[in-house]
Amino acid sequence: MEDEGSSGTLYGEPDAIDKGLEIRDRVAGEGVQVSSGLADPVPADAPEVLRVEDLTVAFPTEDGLVKAVRGVSYALKEREVLGIVGESGSGKSVSSMAVMGLLPKSARITGKVSFRGQDVLSMSARQRRGLRGKRIAMIFQDPMTALNPVYTVGFQLAEAVLSHELMPKKQALARAEEMLALVGIPQPKTRLDSYPHEFSGGMRQRAMIAMAVINNPDVIIADEPTTALDVTVQAQILEKLIEVKDAVNAAIVLITHDLGVVAGMAHRTLVMYAGRPVELGSTDEIFYRTRMPYTAGLLGSIPSAGDTGRLRPIKGAPPSLISLPPGCPFSPRCPVATDICTKEEPPLAPTDDPDHLAACHHWDRLAATDDPTRFFREGPGTETVAGAAGAPVGGIA
Ligand SMILES: Nc1ncnc2c1ncn2[C@@H]1O[C@H](COP(=O)(O)OP(=O)(O)OP(=O)(O)O)[C@@H](O)[C@H]1O
């Protein structure tokens, strides 16, 4: 079999990051755009497909108001891959669920989401259902949350088509077979009759990708699509995802803990911390001209070739989203923080490159050095631990 089943969680495991960097370096070595890795470049004049403006989401709870997302804004062009990176609880999933209209009724949502110019948040439930699965599709970490164990894969794929389009069942099944072939499932005709449990973890995730693209969506939101798979299978699935999205001309919002995944796959990257976007720019900019200390901390914790195997996670933990500290939420962990950082929260604003935004009072200090990760090695906020495989990386746990 081409790939095997899932083997547990790999959050931030060095092998996964190495794999992403290896893909990036391989592609860079061939003179192709580093940031996009496997994806085709996006033409500068490509039309915008999705726009999120100043999105906030809060959940009233017994303990207080959880400010899960605060001021997320981004625009996605046709065929573009936007990586959203951040540690657990940073608001990556909630912001995407808001776009899909999948949050519980109790969620307080403000801001604007536009899909090809249509206001999504003010749509009726029926209009949203029409958008979901057809124009905007979603891939989850665990395919078993989306695949029903009691129906065959072929039936479920055909249903996904028939719920949006009237056509003979035979035609829907033919489309299902075509999609299974597209995502690299061997003997797709026979596999239509398999139940999800008869697939390996990697094959189930391929089936999820088939389900996501079967209606030719404009946008795919992939939330940790490979986190539950082992490293080799992760790379295969990500490569397939990029190949398939180019085949159907979809854009992707790729949500991940794993900077390596973003390095290989995303044209642009949005880094989130404590519910806020803290850095946004081309993936090249984020990796090579980092302007936000949190991102520098994450990058500094990636083991590089020749490293002695010592990882440097960012010391401390993210703040409570119920009682955020005044000023910059990263300041208690930040080696370059000064007084102003504990008093005023910096806006996400242009840096020395107008398309590279950072939420930092001191981005110019990072711009003044070739290696902004050094602040974490030298300054307060650094903790060096023996880097056994599986140790948390960059506070990602
Ligand atoms: N229904 C809810 N009620 C209260 N709090 C919630 C609810 N859903 C999410 N949250 C909180 O919102 C915050 C952001 O969660 P989110 O799932 O977006 O994080 P994430 O960055 O995607 O992390 P992970 O990678 O672990 O999924 C978390 O603190 C989470 O506990």
TrEMBL record:
UniProt domain ABC transporter: residue ranges: 50-299
Ordered alphabetically, the record's keywords are:
ATP-binding, Cell membrane, Membrane, Nucleotide-binding, Transport
- Give the chief site where it resides: membrane
Q: Name one GO cellular component term.
A: plasma membrane
Bilayer topology reads: Peripheral membrane protein
In Pfam terms, one family for this protein is oligo_HPY
- GO molecular function term, any single one: ATP hydrolysis activity
Query: What name goes with this protein?
Result: ABC transporter ATP-binding protein
| Lineage per the UniProt record | Bacteria, Bacillati, Actinomycetota, Actinomycetes, Nakamurellales
